Each structure stands twice: as structure tokens, then as C-alpha cells.
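Supplementary Note 3. Input sequence used for the single-chain structure prediction.
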Amino acid sequence: NYQPEIDELFEDGEHLVTYKSYDELVEKVNYYLTHTNEREAIAQNGYEFVNKKGKVTDRTVEMIRLSIGG
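The predicted structure, written as C-alpha cells, is reproduced below.
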């Protein structure tokens, strides 16, 4: 589910994949089910990015801080 704050931390399609509607979710699920290499590359990029930038808990705290306007 897309949240504007995600754009401040991650790049959509590079580190993760977001969606803005149910129809877009279904479209992306179907796409990535048939594009395994691309799906796995995005997952790996996201994993490496988070590990390079800090612990998952640190990133979660940062996302919560941004979402409440802190």
C-alpha cells in the first residue's frame, strides 16, 4: 500500500514495489509472478539497501517518525 513517506526512504521499483489501488495491486502481482528475475532483484536490492542503511528496527522507527510528521 503506497504511503508518500515511503518515497523519502526507498525508490519504488528499485527497493520495493508499491500500489495505489486494488487493481494496480492485482496487475503488479500478476506481473511479478511472471518476472521472477526482476522480482528477486528488487527484493535483493531492498534487502541490501536496508542492511546498508541500518537495522530494520531503525528504519521502522524512521518511517513512523516521518509518518507522524516528526
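The chain has four helices and no strands. The radius of gyration is 13 Å.
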